[in-house]
Specification:
The chain has 271 residues and is an alpha/beta fold. The chain has helices spanning 2-26, 64-73, 93-105, 115-119, 123-132, 165-170; strands spanning 29-37, 45-51, 77-81, 109-112, 136-137, 141-147, 150-156, 178-182, 199-202, 211-212, 216-217, 219-220, 224-225, 232-237, 240-244, 262-270. Strand 14 and strand 15 (240-244) form a beta hairpin. The model has no long low-confidence stretch (mean pLDDT 93). It comes from Gracilibacillus ureilyticus. GO terms for molecular function: metal ion binding; UDP-2,3-diacylglucosamine hydrolase activity. It holds the Pfam family Metallophos. This is Calcineurin-like phosphoesterase domain-containing protein.
């Protein structure tokens, strides 16, 4: 009897784990993040939808399931923080469908490349596709957008993320403009201490992709074992925040566990 119960328990536990893996890998959620700043007038609410590390995954036919959620949130800005594709991607139909609809939903869509774009030999085709649909490429460039009487500066890092001299030159010196840095790889913040960057939006880590109870992520790219910056919100410099989205897609192992596929809705409230 005891052995039978053990077998049943084992089978049910295995089924629960498999079910959780399937759900976390294939059902995308919107992760809400709320921040405060005195650089936007009191009562202002700037919402930014961040999509990262899709790795050419499709959620629903032509992303219909994902796009349905995106339409509901009505974000002011959409940012794509790298690895839309995988380094081996050759067919961009999925991304074509996504980008086309994103631009129909929101006119302000910004993109930076990630390491998988850098390694993909067809990167120029992807860039051409994005530009054709009027997505603003922010690799090593910046843009200032008006918002409710204030200005918001968005700066993007590209492949040479280790050289931040040009980034420092782009940052406004007045310290009154809310400044966002898009950097696929979060380690870039190490060289930006003391600058007027208020918020860094990153991806790359996948949050470890597979996480364990009570431990969390064991290893992420570029940080080794038991990383400090794996997913979520961190203070990387005094009063400066880094948000790492754990992403929607997968790489290497095509599974997620205790780390559901996600995109993020970041609401920045003026105070």
């Amino acid at each position: 009897m005891f052995k039978k119960m053990m077998w049943v328990t084992g089978i049910l536990s295995a089924a629960a784990v498999v079910g959780k893996i399937y759900y976390d890998t294939n059902v995308v959620k919107i992760n809400p993040v709320t921040l405060m700043t005195n650089k936007l007038r009191k009562g202002s609410q700037l919402s930014i939808l961040q999509i990262s590390d899709l790795h050419n995954r499709t959620f629903g036919k032509d992303h219909k399931g994902l796009l349905k959620q995106i339409k509901k949130v009505k974000a002011d800005v959409i940012v794509l923080t790298g690895d839309l594709i995988d380094r081996k991607t050759t067919d961009f139909h999925s991304i074509f469908c996504l980008v086309k609809e994103l631009k129909n939903i929101n006119n302000q869509v910004f993109f930076i490349t990630g390491n998988h774009e850098w390694d993909n030999p067809y990167l120029s085709e992807l860039i051409n596709l994005l530009e054709k649909h009027h997505v603003k490429i922010l690799d090593n460039s910046h843009i200032t957008i008006p918002f409710n009487g204030d200005e918001v500066q968005i700066i993007g890092l590209g492949k040479n993320y280790g050289n931040n001299t040009h980034v420092k030159q782009m940052i406004k010196k007045d310290n009154c403009t809310f400044t966002i840095l898009l950097s696929h790889i979060p380690n870039a913040v190490r060289e930006l201490s003391g600058t007027n960057i208020d918020l860094v939006l990153s991806g790359h880590t996948h949050g470890g992709q597979i996480r364990f109870p009570f431990i969390g992520s064991v290893i992420v790219p570029d940080q080794g074992v038991f990383p400090k910056f794996d997913k979520g919100l961190f203070e990387w410099d005094k009063g400066k925040l880094l948000y790492i989205d754990s992403g929607a897609g997968t790489t290497r192992l095509p599974v997620r566990f205790l780390n559901q596929a996600q995109i993020s809705l970041i609401q920045i409230n003026g105070e």
